[in-house]
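If your schedule permits, I should be very grateful for your opinion on a structural question. Thank you for your consideration; the sequence and its tokens are set out here:

===
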Amino acid sequence: MTGAPNPGAVAARLRGDADDVEAEVEEALGRLEALPDLPVTEHVAVFEGVQQRLSEILSNVDDA
């Protein structure tokens, strides 16, 4: 994706342990890989969980 923000680059500007933040983001996004194996009715729960985790990560970066 061009033009999309890179979570690791943003985190590097905000605090020193960007690798940890980037790993947390990758882990959260990795949950989306389960979608093809799940019924469509369960997709919303996965999306909500990923969104919640990304919000937590961003909140932690903002607090740093």
In short: The CA atoms of residues 45 and 51 lie 10 Å apart. The first helix runs from residue 7 to 14. The chain has one domain: 7-63.
